[in-house]
Structure formats: structure tokens, C-alpha cells
Design brief:
The structure holds two protein chains of two kinds. Chain A is α+β, with helices and mostly antiparallel strands. Chain A folds into two domains: 171 residues, no CATH class; 110 residues, Cyclophilin (Beta Barrel), CATH 2.40.100. In chain A, 16% of the residues lie in helices and 30% in strands. In chain A, the strands form four sheets. In chain A, strands 1, 2, 3, 4, 5, 6, 7, 8 and 11 form a nine-stranded antiparallel sheet that branches. An eight-stranded mixed sheet of chain A has the order 20-13-14-17-16-19-12-21. In chain A, helix 1 runs parallel beside helix 4. Chain A is globular and about 65 Å long. By secondary structure, chain B is α+β, with helices and mostly antiparallel strands. In chain B, strands 1-2-4-3 form a four-stranded antiparallel sheet, with helices on one face. A four-stranded mixed sheet of chain B has the order 5-13-6-7, with helices on one face. The termini of chain B are far apart. The chains are: A alpha+beta, B alpha+beta.
Chain lengths: 323, 214
């Protein structure tokens, strides 16, 4: 089990979320940074979409009550594990009684802690993700609190050996100034060339009022040719909606399944995890690409994850014996 | 009938637009196309989301590309998209007690008596146009024109689960306690959303709904 010794301001159980319930109004939910979710799981010897801890906003302490392998991915944090300084993208063997202590966030917004065997909270409708607005999923549908004890599963046969590090080139990267690729949205035709140029040229900032449902962007205002009112239709994580204020909102995993605001663009699936890691005040720029380019990036990401899985498997089979 | 317009919704979904208005005939075409796409069981399809005038299909780009999936979905939508009857969906009865905090206000604003408000609300057989806003939240139309009101000027921070409400040309039941700006006419014990049930939502697009006093 994992015991929450001192809960951080935000700590939830997340996996890849729900995918097939949008028609009933159920958002996709799941990890904000699905890339880090999968990398952390692979490093802990788990299936890619196993349930992990999603941690944000501040310090906290956990204790492991059994021996297991753990791995961190996503936001860079400072802290200690069993008394030694933390490092991301490394498999750690922890022993019963060891503590993970997070002191502060260095960069990024969410980090993921995977435990060999995965978190084994009761699944709801096929997912262990936490949907806070609905009060279900994860651990009793709520943020984790001091004193909570989370069940963990039985580790797979071959988690990587203690201290094994994922090669640099296979780690998620979050370059701060790289634009986010977007595909033109279904209502891009409501915007004139000048508005589209402004959208692509703008340096937006992530507003403070940004959460798991959506990231509000501050910057130049973008307006359609004429005020648009659209019968509500499906939206999705990554959809860039332009409400009447002209300040775009990028929908995130807990965002609504439908909406009536014009969608000027949709962030490429491969880039949305990187956007999730942008903290309030940080810059966001967009670059239009074709659907084919965004899909090529999606496929590359799938291949990269496969490579990571293979690399971890090889490392587990042939551990370096040291010396 | 015109073929719908197809647009990408990012790299993993597409949207077919059948019209720009909210009306039962367009909704019926969308619903029929959704049924046809679901029934076809296309391996790459991950989710099918009908709305008022548009149908979105989510797919896995590892298994198809945009041109292929658009061609498949368009063919199904054109074949199946014009035949559905408005009354094709099952009829769901929702018991309601007209004990909402806004009943008197609605009566005043519409120039009706509270009794007339209840009677008009319960007299209509509604159609489910859309689910959204919250899990299990179904937008039902068409509300009797005598009851059309804009949303409340300031939304409530918490509307109790089970509240039966109206706004504009629509009525709905709040499945979960959420913020909300609709006028609350009453309440129901019916579970609009239950994670232990399959499917968890009581209503689906295309269903018919009656409110029954109980």
C-alpha cells in the first residue's frame, strides 16, 4: 500500500480515462499528461495505461508499506526517495517504510508516480481515473488526503532493476519555446485571414483560471467575422474554443464533451501532454499543421512508446551487474 | 437531401455537419447517422457523439487515416441519415414533483399560474437532442413556447442533483449537483446518471421523454 503521510494540495489517482462514453456527456478525463503517465508506467514494469498518482501544486510525503519499484515522469520536482535525492525517469526499488518526500516543483505542472503492480483502486465504468466534478472514480471520487492508504497490485515479472535510467533520447521533453501544433478546427471558416494570422503569431499566456477542464489563454483577442452562435456539438481535449471575449480556451481531459463556441483549432494529440505541463503565466504559441502531419506525430509517439517498452524489457532481462 | 459537410476535429476525430439549426428533422438525421455508424462496427472507431445538427466520430489514427474514415462515415450517413422517424427512440417516463424554488418566479415571468406551468411542462412529449454539460445531462426539447425564458441572470453555484429545470426552448434534469443557471421547476428521484448501471446515463439521443407527476 501507499500511505499519504502529508497530502499535497492536489493528488489524485489517474489512468488513461474513459474513452467511449462521450455520447452520455462523460468527459474523457484521465492523466493530463498521457505521455508521462505511460513512460512512468513502463519504467515501473507496468502496462502503459495502469493507474498512477497525478501530483500537482506543492509539497507532500508518501510512505510505501511494501517493497516495490517506483518511477517518476512529467514535471521536474525536487525531493527525496528513501533519503536519496530524486531523479525522474529512473526505476527505484523501494522497501517497506521508505518515504517519498516532494519539496517543490522545478518546472512543469503535473508529475506522475507509477508503482509496480499499479494502483488498484476500484475501477468505475472501466477506468480508475478520478473525476472530481462528478465525485466518482479514483479514491472515492476525491483528492487524496493525509491518512489515505491506496492498494497496489502485484508487480509484473520483470520490473527494471534499481537505478536503471531511461536513456535521454527516450524521455518526454518539454521545450518551453516550441510552438504547439494545431489542426484547423471545424469552425476555422468563421475566422478571416487576419484573425488566423493573429492566432498563429500570438504569444498567449496560460491564465491562472486554468484547471483540468481547460486552459484559458491571455493575449491578443481573436474574433470570428461575425458573432457566432453554433448549436452545441462535440468538443474534445485540445479543442481551442473562442468565446465572445476573444480569449481562447483549450479544453483539457476533464473538459465538456460538447460546446457551442467556435473551435478555431485543435491541438495535436502528440502535443497536448506538453501543453498540460505549461503553468499559469507561461507562454503558448500555436503552429497550424495538416491533419496528416498531426497524425504522423501521433504515430511517431506510439512508436516511441513501443521503443521505450522494448528498452525497458531488455533492461529487465539483462540487468547490468555493475562493478 | 444534402450530404453533410465533413471537417476534422483534430487528428483523432471528425465532425459531420448536417445543418446550422436546432430542429427535430435535423436531429433525426444526425441520430440515424449515429446509429448507422455504430451498427457498422468500424474497427478504428472509438466513439460516436451525436449532437443537435452534427455527428462526431472519434477514431484511432493508428488504424485509419482521415480520408478513409471520412469516406466510410459519409457513406453510412447518407444511406442511413434521412430515414429515421422522429419517434424512433424508446419512451422514458420520469416521475417529477413540481416543488422547485423557481416555480413561482416562472409563473410570474410567463404570466401563467404555477398550475399552468406544471401542466404545460408535463403535457409535452420531449425529444433528447443532446447529452453534455455533465455526465447524463440530457437537453430535451421542444418546450412549450409559453414557457420559454432566458437563463437566470446569475447562475446558482450549486443546483441539487435531480432538479428538473427549464431554459430557452429546453428542459433537463441535473444528474449531479453542479452550478447551473436554469429555472428549477421541480425534482425527480430518477437517477439520470448511475455509474453502477450500464449504460450509466438514463437517456440517450433520440429517446422520447415524458414527465409524469408522482
Amino acid at each position: 500500500m501507499i500511505r499519504i503521510v502529508a497530502s499535497p494540495p492536489y493528488l489524485t489517482v489517474q489512468d488513461a480515462g474513459w474513452g467511449g462514453l462521450r455520447a452520455s456527456g462523460m468527459p474523457v478525463c484521465g492523466a493530463m499528461d498521457g505521455w508521462a503517465l505511460r513512460i512512468a508506467n513502463l519504467l515501473a514494469g507496468n502496462a502503459m495505461d495502469d493507474a498512477v498518482l497525478e501530483w500537482a501544486l506543492g509539497p507532500g510525503v508518501l510512505r510505501f508499506t511494501a517493497d516495490c519499484t517506483v518511477a517518476l515522469a512529467g514535471a521536474e520536482v525536487a525531493g527525496t526517495l528513501a533519503g536519496a535525492p530524486l531523479a525522474g525517469y529512473m526505476a527505484f526499488r523501494v522497501h517497506a517504510g521508505d518515504e517519498l518526500r516532494i519539496d517543490r516543483f522545478v518546472t512543469g505542472r503535473f508529475f506522475y508516480l507509477a508503482v509496480s503492480g499499479g494502483l488498484r483502486t476500484a475501477p468505475v465504468l472501466g477506468s480508475r481515473s478520478t473525476y472530481l466534478p462528478g465525485g466518482f472514480g479514483g479514491w472515492h471520487g476525491r483528492l487524496l488526503r493525509t491518512g489515505d492508504e491506496l492498494p497496489i497490485g502485484t508487480a509484473g515479472p520483470t520490473p527494471p532493476s534499481d537505478g536503471w535510467m531511461l536513456p535521454e533520447g527516450l524521455r518526454p521533453s518539454y521545450p518551453p519555446s516550441e510552438p504547439f501544433r494545431v489542426v484547423a478546427g471545424p469552425q476555422v471558416g468563421l475566422f478571416d485571414a487576419e484573425a488566423l494570422r493573429a492566432f498563429e503569431a500570438a504569444e498567449f499566456r496560460v491564465a491562472r483560471a486554468s484547471d483540468r477542464a481547460g486552459y484559458r489563454l491571455e493575449g491578443p483577442t481573436i474574433h470570428p467575422r461575425s458573432p457566432a452562435s453554433l448549436p452545441s456539438e462535440a468538443a474534445c481535449p485540445g479543442a481551442v474554443q473562442v468565446p465572445g471575449s476573444g480569449q481562447p480556451i483549450v479544453l483539457m481531459p476533464d473538459g465538456p464533451t460538447v460546446g457551442g463556441y467556435p473551435k478555431i483549432a485543435v491541438v495535436a494529440s502528440a502535443d497536448l501532454p506538453r501543453l498540460a505541463q505549461r503553468a499559469p503565466g507561461e507562454g503558448v504559441r500555436f503552429r497550424m499543421v495538416t491533419v496528416a502531419e498531426a497524425q504522423a506525430a501521433y504515430r511517431r509517439r506510439a512508436i516511441d512508446l513501443h521503443t521505450v517498452a522494448e528498452t525497458v524489457r531488455r533492461a529487465a532481462r539483462h540487468p547490468r551487474t555493475g562493478g | 437531401m444534402d450530404a453533410p459537410r465533413a471537417d476534422p476535429l483534430g487528428d483523432s476525430a471528425l465532425t459531420l455537419t448536417f445543418g446550422e439549426t436546432v430542429d427535430a428533422a435535423t436531429s433525426a438525421r444526425v441520430h440515424a447517422a449515429a446509429q448507422a455508424v455504430r451498427a457498422a462496427g468500424i474497427a478504428a472507431v472509438r466513439d460516436v457523439v451525436p449532437a443537435y445538427a452534427a455527428l462526431s466520430v472519434f477514431y484511432d489514427p493508428l488504424h485509419t487515416d482521415y480520408a478513409d474514415i471520412v469516406a466510410q462515415v459519409l457513406a453510412l450517413s447518407v444511406d442511413g441519415g434521412s430515414v429515421a422517424s422522429l419517434d424512433a427512440g424508446p419512451l422514458v417516463e420520469i416521475p417529477v414533483r413540481y416543488d422547485g424554488p423557481d416555480l413561482e418566479d416562472v409563473a410570474r415571468a410567463t404570466g401563467l399560474s404555477p398550475r399552468e406551468v406544471m401542466d404545460l411542462h408535463a403535457a409535452t412529449e420531449y425529444r433528447v437532442y443532446l447529452l453534455g454539460f455533465a455526465p447524463g445531462f440530457a437537453y430535451l426539447g421542444d418546450l412549450d413556447p409559453a414557457l420559454h425564458l432566458p437563463r437566470r441572470p446569475s447562475p446558482r453555484t450549486r443546483v441539487p442533483a435531480g432538479s428538473v429545470a427549464i431554459a430557452g426552448a429546453q428542459t433537463a434534469v441535473y444528474p449531479l449537483a453542479t452550478p447551473g443557471g436554469w429555472h428549477l421547476l421541480g425534482s425527480t428521484a430518477a437517477a439520470m446518471w448511475d455509474v453502477r448501471r450500464d449504460p450509466p446515463a438514463l437517456l440517450a439521443v433520440g429517446d422520447r421523454v415524458r414527465f409524469v407527476r408522482g
